[in-house]
Every structure is written in structure tokens, then in C-alpha cells.
Amino acid sequence: MSKTISFFGTRSAESSALADMLKVCAEESGYQFYHFSPENADSSLYFNACLNSEIVIVDATIESVASQANNGNIVEDDHYAIFNVMHIAFDHIWIVSRTYLPVNFTTMFRDIAPSYPFPASHPEQLEKTPERITWDNNNIVQAIKNRLPVFAGRTSLASRLPPLDPKNLTPFYTAYAELMAEAIKKDAEERRKGLKKVFISYRSAFYEDVRALQESWKGQYEFIVMPPGSLAYESEVLPRLRRWQLMSVLDRQIDLADEFWVYQTDDYDKSWWTQGELITLAYRKHSGTYCPEIKTFDPSEKSLSPGYEKMPELNQSQAERIARRYSNSDPLTMGPENVAAIRKMRKWSETPLIGNAFHWLIRKMTRTRLAKEIMATSHPASAITGGEITEEELLKKVGDKDFFRKYLQDPVWEPAFWENAVLEYGKKESAGNSIDVDAFIEMSGLEYVEFRPDELKKWIDAGKYRHNGIEYKVLNAAPRFLWIANRMGKQPKDNLQRLDVCLFVKNTDNKNI
């Protein structure tokens, strides 16, 4: 049987042209080529291709952006509806794009797509731009040609799985789950061979210094550095939901590293961003998952020392609250389809007389059904408890009369968490020599003002905002996008969610995030 490459394209003429170019490239390398467009592809066909083709290429171009930038007709981005999370684990699934990718639609291998640009020194230059089309099909084809020889001896997933028996799928899906777990483990082992990978945590004002550090240690380490603006701009206002979404993306990058270096500067721990990276490490330590070795780099001495003096430690309550925020903000687990129902449950639970009966009924149902059938899928135990837990322990925990009351009262379900943009204008000094984890979680350590969507639009239209004697110029920049996977067989309203970018730029110098 000949080796195959399956290509999943978009509706655009550019994607069809890319398919023609890749077909020639594939046949020259001895592969049979299959082209699937949104008109003839669905999620089951995509899953089947990932199992049976030696290589799967996904055109993830955001065509609505590409066509707008080229002043063409708007092309729908409905191709995102068929994809699943397989590309996270398996390196034979390659993501290519002519536009910037959604912030969370990436692989652990290397995506063939343009990187987000380093932000301009003057944020107002980001208004309506930057130009989002920086790659063309020639870039993609050349990268594919360079990669194909590395995969010459690769076999398909299906060849490593038991035969599919429609009457009894359990052995197949059990083996598939084990294979995915093995792939993730193997990928981690491969990454940790050769040069150590180092994630550098730093304040954005020192980006050029960090780049110089990379160059001086080139050949000794492989560095993971998130450039300023790659996930959010310094002057961008974000809802709490988006802050935690970015934390989940950073968490996956940190998971790739052998070592985590704090680039020590006087203002290092004054940023929500850098505090969040440290708390991510603390959460990993608390939950018992993999945590890279932590070191501190002193740029003045050019020295590296073990640990970080202000490294926080979590208690169980903090871990539980962080787990809920991660689970309900991470695009791969957030389940936005459940939020409306949970808000209704919250309202019922607060209703006089009905509330107590409601909680009694929920506890009884949970002990008999929800813990096994719903909690394990919609809301993993770790999202409730902050760590691994047995079914018996979960049943005991949800039997507590106050458990669901506290769960439903969590701020993560409030509209403000999802919708209101937050503008920071100050930071309260924390007592002691460590990061105040509670203040970080609840944002009590910040001085800020937040805007409902209608209020934000008002200031965008006005073009300026004034608070505490400081005037801000209010700008819109090119939007980012977030990929929402189908969950539990259900498709969300939009698989590709637009993230509007709004900048509040101080008219005075501001280096704090």
C-alpha cells in the first residue's frame, strides 16, 4: 500500500492553488495525495485521515482576515469545525497558514506559519494593522519539502492500532488513548534529548537584552522566549477570562522546558504576567505534574543560580480556585456551552426556599449519577479540587452541603469575568518577600477600572479616556482569534472566536504591564 498525504484546505482560491503545489511535491516524494475541502470533509473524515495517512497537512489560514486584507470577498472560516486536538500529540499532523494562527491552535512540533510581529515602538502604529499577510504558498511548500525527508520511514497510526470492530469499539479507543499518551510522552522525551530547553520569564522592556542572552548562550541551550505582543500587547485591556486563557497557553509552553529562568530585574515581579508564570509553576508543583527546574539569571553579574527567592507556594484553597479558572478559561476545556446552564443553577440556588431544596437534590443526583457521567467529562475532578482525586473522594466531597453552593458562587461564572475589560493603573505593594497568591487570583492586589462591552465601545468611539489625572488614547488593533474545539460531540456557536484588541495607551511613559 502506498504512503499517503491528506491535505485539508479552505474554500479560497489560494488554498486550492496550495493543494496543487503540494500534490506535485508529494508525488515527487512517493506519496499519494488527497485533497479535502470544506465541501467534502467532516470531523469523522478528518479523524480517519489522521489515523490512516502517514502525513496530514491542515491549512489553518484565517481566510476571513486574508480576504479582507487583500480586499477580496470574505471567505468563511468553517474549516475549523472539523478539527480536533489530535495535532497536540501527534507530529505527523502539520499546521500551515498564510496568516497568523489562533493563539491556541498550535502543535508541539513546529507550525509552518508566520509569527506574530514584534510590536511597534509606538502602539498607535498597531491601529487597524499590522499587515496580517506575511507568508504565501511558496513559503509553505518550501518548508514542507524540507520536512518530508525526516518523515520518510513513518508509518500511519492505524498500523499501530487493533482492527476497528464496529460492534466493540472499546479495544480500539483504549489503544488509541494509550497511543496518544505514549506520543505525548515520547515527544517530551525527544524534546529533552540534546540541548536543554529553557523558558525565559522576563519583563517586556528587556526583550532586546533577553535576545542578546540567547545569542551569547547559543549552542548551549535551546530557548523558549515569548516575544512581546505574541499573546497580548502591553497596553491591551483584557477581560479576566482572557488573562487566564493566556496563562493556559503559557503553561503549555512552560511544559516544553527543562529549565525555567527568571530574568531578574528590579521590576520583575511587579507584572501580572510574570507573577502568573511563577504561579503556574507553583500550581504544577502543588498538583504533582511536571515542573521544570527553576533558576535565576542576574544580568548585572551574568550569573545563574538555583531557585527564585520569591517563588510562591500554594495552599489547597488557592489550588482549587486556580484549577477552576484554568479549566473554565483554557480553550480546550472551558466548555462555554455550559455557562448559561450553570448561571441558571446559580440563580435557583440563591432563591429563598427553593435554594435549600435545590442543593439537596443536586447532592443526591451527584452521588448517584453526575459524578460518574457529567462531572468526569464536563468538569474534570481536577477542575474542582485542584489536583487528582479518586471517584470515592469526589463523591464524598460533593456530599458536603456547602460544596455546590461555593462552586456555583465562584466568580468564574459571572458575566464580568467573561466580558469586562480590565485597565490597570496601579499596584498595591504586597507584604513580605513573596507574591500574594490570593491577591493575584482575586485581583485584589491591583488598582484597576473595568469596562462592560457597551462602556468600552463608548471609549473606543471617543478615542480617549481619562482616569486619575492620566489620559489614555484608546485604539483598536487587528483582532486575534481563539480556536474552540467541538466538545462532547457538540459544535460551539463559533469554532473560531474573534478576540477584539483594544489598546489604552498612556500619553505619558509607562513601562509597567
In the predicted model, the low-confidence regions spanning at least 5 consecutive residues are: 370-386
Number of strands: 15
Q: Report the structural category.
A: alpha/beta
Q: Which strand order spans the largest sheet, edge to edge or round the barrel? A: 6-5-8-9-10
Write down the overall mean pLDDT.
Answer: 80
Relative helix content: 25-40%
Major β-sheet annotation: 5 strands, mixed
In what range is the share of β-strand residues?
15-25%
Radius of gyration: 24 Å
Which term fits the overall shape? Answer: globular
What is the element layout, followed by pairings?
Blueprint: E1 3-8, H1 13-28, E2 31-36, H2 43-52, E3 55-59, H3 63-69, H4 86-89, E4 93-96, H5 137-147, H6 170-191, E5 196-201, H7 207-216, E6 221-224, E7 238-239, H8 240-254, E8 259-263, H9 272-287, E9 293-298, E10 303-306, H10 316-327, H11 339-349, H12 354-373, H13 381-385, H14 391-398, H15 403-408, H16 415-419, E11 421-427, H17 437-442, E12 446-451, H18 453-462, E13 464-467, E14 470-483, E15 496-506
Parallel strand pairs: 1-2, 1-3, 3-4, 5-6, 5-8, 8-9
Antiparallel strand pairs: 7-11, 9-10, 11-12, 13-14, 14-15
Helix pairs in contact: 1-5, 8-9, 12-14
